[in-house]
Design brief:
Mean pLDDT: 87
Helix content: 25-40%
Radius of gyration: 17 Å
Oligomer: single chain
Shape: globular
Strand content: 15-25%
Number of strands: 11
Number of helices: 6
Length: about 180
C-alpha cells in the first residue's frame, strides 16, 4: 500500500465488510468468502490478504479462502464455547461515557453485539485512546469478571485475546483510573 492513510481507509472498509455487512453471506462464526469480499465489497484478494497480515483483528482460514474479524460485529455471530474469564478484566472508555454507563447501570455493547474486555490495562488504555483527544479523556474500568462468571454471566474469548460478554452491570465495576496506574 502506498501510504498509511490508504492502509487505514482500506482497513476500515474491510472492518465494515466483515463486522457489519449482513448483506454479504457469512457463516454463523463470521467467516466470509474472500471471493464475496471481492464481489460485494470491491476489495481484491491481494489487498484483503495484505490487510489481514498487518492487522491482528482479522483471521484467514487455513485454506486461504475465507476471512473473519475476531470481534466487533453488529451482526449476530457465534463466538464459540463459553470460557471462564480471569478474576479481573478491563474496559477502556472516557469520563463522558462513564457518566452514561453509570446512569444506565451497565457497560453495554453500543453498536456491537458484545462488550469487549481486556485482560490487560495497557490494551484497555490503547482501545480507549483510539477515540480520545488526550490522556485526560481516558478512563480504565476494572471489572470483577470472576464474580460475574460465578453469578452466571457468560464470557467468550476471541481469537486475539479479547473477552466478550453481553453486558456488564455497574455493580461489577470495582475501580476506575484515568492514567492506567492501578489505584486499587
Amino acid at each position: 500500500m502506498s501510504d498509511s492513510s490508504e492502509y487505514v481507509r482500506n482497513s476500515k472498509r474491510l472492518s465494515r465488510i466483515l463486522r457489519h455487512r449482513s448483506d454479504i453471506p457469512h457463516d454463523e462464526h463470521g467467516w466470509i468468502s474472500i471471493d464475496d469480499v471481492e464481489v460485494h465489497g470491491g476489495m481484491d484478494r491481494g489487498l484483503v490478504m495484505e490487510i489481514s497480515r498487518m492487522n491482528t483483528r482479522y483471521e484467514i482460514s487455513e485454506d486461504g479462502e475465507r476471512i473473519r474479524a475476531f470481534h466487533g460485529h453488529s451482526i449476530d455471530i457465534d463466538y464459540g464455547d463459553p470460557v471462564e474469564p480471569p478474576k479481573h478484566l478491563y474496559h477502556g472508555t472516557s469520563p463522558q461515557a462513564w457518566d452514561m454507563i453509570r446512569d444506565s447501570g451497565y457497560i453495554l455493547p453500543m453498536r456491537r453485539t458484545e462488550v469487549h474486555l481486556s485482560a490487560s490495562i495497557g490494551y484497555a488504555k490503547d482501545v480507549a485512546g483510539r477515540r480520545s483527544r488526550s490522556e485526560d479523556d481516558i478512563m480504565i474500568l476494572r471489572v470483577d469478571s470472576g464474580r460475574m462468571h460465578s453469578d452466571g454471566y457468560v464470557f467468550h474469548l476471541s481469537g486475539d485475546g479479547v473477552y466478550l460478554t453481553e453486558k456488564v452491570p455497574v455493580e461489577y465495576v470495582e475501580h476506575m483510573t484515568g492514567d492506567g496506574e492501578t489505584e486499587w
